[in-house]
Amino acid sequence: MSLRYRGVLPALLTVLLLPLAQTASADDAKLALGKKVFTEQAMPSCSICHALQDAGATGAIGPSLDELKPSAAQVATAVRSGIGVMPAFTALSDEQVDAVAHYVATAAGRK
């Protein structure tokens, strides 16, 4: 490879791969927030009622999310509006609801 083009390939790879790294980082942060909402921030904790292996949750009141495999949209609707005996979690922000919905759908293998 000539000296003239030697620096082009690394620069090109950086330009092409940087958006992927930023997306992965944002996704990791959203998953981390979602897991925190699921295990700690929602009151009562989602893990009290629901089983979800990734969260170490073994609740038996609500359905096992590993078996149900809900979509993010289904989780967000249930969290915002409640369903059956599950209350609506109106104290959670939109960011928290979106994060926990993304986390549950991903951890349950829907995505």
Short précis:
The protein has 111 residues and is mostly helical. The chain is 63% helix and 4% strand. It has a two-stranded antiparallel sheet with strand order 1-2.
How would you describe this structure to a colleague?
The chain has 111 residues and is mainly alpha-helical. The protein has one domain: Cytochrome c-like domain (Cytochrome Bc1 Complex, Chain D, domain 2, Orthogonal Bundle), CATH 1.10.760. The chain is built from 6 helices and 2 strands; from the N terminus they run αααββααα. It has helices at residues 3-6, 8-41, 46-49, 65-68, 72-81, 94-107; strands at residues 51-52, 57-58. Strand 1 (51-52) and strand 2 form a beta hairpin. Helix 2 packs across helix 6 and helix 5 packs across helix 6. The protein starts with a helix and ends with a helix.
